[in-house]
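User: What would this chain look like folded?
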Amino acid sequence: MPPAWGGTVRPAQAAVAGAGPTAREALSDNLLDRTVTWVQSFFTAEHGRNAFGHFVAAGLLFVTAILLRKVITHVIFAWLKRLAAKTTTTLDDKLFPALETPVAWLVFVFLTFAGLRVLVLPAWVEAWIGYAFDVAWVAMLFWGCYARSTLSSII
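Assistant: Here's the prediction, encoded as structure tokens.
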């Protein structure tokens, strides 16, 4: 509490008088509070209706979509192709390469649209995103069926 005469209390006087924390302690608490508030503002302060965390989550889902597509293409289907090469039938040798691209794109499209759904957007934009997702996954499904049908014509 400031002195009644309008002067300032020095830190030593405040500590001796038992008037509360010293100026240095008050400054450090204030700095800590300001720092914490500043960091929290990135995740709670809303820009439009999206917090910074929404943009981070959407970006992470998009990056995950890219990486997972690469993993499916270069790791999982490569392993399936090696496994298919060991079998005596030729169906799986042709099936896995035919389905590789549609499956990888299906995963990419799913995670990309999930990232878009994380964002808080106007209702009409969310409706169009929903329509686009419906068209995209059906297109991926037909692409997979087409790849399989062209495969059966080869066999």
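The chain has a mean pLDDT of 75. If you want, I can go into more detail on any region.
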